[in-house]
Amino acid sequence: MTEVSAGREGRRVEVSAPGKTILMGEHAAVYGHPALVAAIDQRMRAVVEASSAQGVRLDLPQVDVQQQCSWQELIDYGRRAAAAWELYRETPSPEAFGRVRGDDPAHLVKVAVGEVVDFLGRDAVPGGGQGLHLAVHSEIPLGAGFGSSAAASAAIVSALLTWFGVTPSYDDLHALTLNVERRQHGFPSGIDTSTVIHGGLVWAERQADGSLHSEPLSASPPWLRRVRIFNSGRPRQSTGDVVAAVRRLRQTDRRRFDGAMETIVAATETLRRTVLDGSPGEGKMVALMRRCQRGLEALGVVPEEIMALVRRVEAAGGGAKISGAGALRGPAAGSLLVFHEEDEIIDTWRFLDPLQPVRTTLGAAGVRQGA
Ligand code: PMV
What we know:
By secondary structure, the protein is an alpha+beta fold. The protein is built from 10 helices and 12 strands. Helix 1 packs antiparallel against helix 2. The site of (3R)-3-hydroxy-3-methyl-5-(phosphonooxy)pentanoic acid (PMV) has 16 residues, from helix 6 and helix 7.
């Protein structure tokens, strides 16, 4: 059990975590290949305060939840989700995942509280009529590839640990946050988790032993400021559904799968070299985006409507790619990165009007105390 300091009454802890956008390497990351990910300065904020009511008051305006829960309920909720996830890991199926995820809109938050209490030990929770109030506020579009669940998990876990007087190591924070992500998505690669904790630009790659090596890159290449981000809307399928469809493609059409992976990995590795050698990337970014997008299309994670938009970007001299899981069907595929050497020209492309521009800076600070 971890040492927990007493005397929390009256304290207010606020922790924020950034969203993220995957520059390249989504889906490939699930199979141990590298990804390059940037934190964005849209943030998720978790605020923890002492309250006179027993247990935990959840205040989650984005998912329309205001609920009073006992500590025991939250501990049980977290343990049930963990046990269901172990079964899902042994025998993955949509039904088994349904038993992990359930349909509670406060699922992620309840799991996060349960994980933290299990980590600290049951004795850590306040007794004697004291409880806490946990509020979560998001500037990050939900469920659209901007890392909202990783940011919420990291901000909540970190705020709760801080409130209990524990300063977590990177490894503990990563492990707890990833567990919450697993109950939300099934088998996340962990790249979102690393990025929202570290912030900046992160190169992440799974090691032979299954652990994720993540390396913050201190470079800030000039082209990064010219990458535009658009939100095409919340995909109809969850990240878990799309990842499962790619897994099926791997079983049914191994050649297509391998070819797509090779394309994505080659583009991602070239992008990393472009970041590290400090070259301006002139002329390269458009080609790289186009190449990576072709790999994603071959995996079947770009619906036709979005593919048609991407073709128009290309016809106008730019490059575009989905960022994140994408979608199997429907008009929306979450986040879309658009690049042109002269980025102002993108503002004149009326065909992008149906998408929502996400005005943000890439390379934002990682999880931190304060807003
Ligand atoms: O949750 P999203 O949309 O950011 O997608 C995550 C990226 C994937 O590579 C598709 C899955 C993963 O866990 O890395």
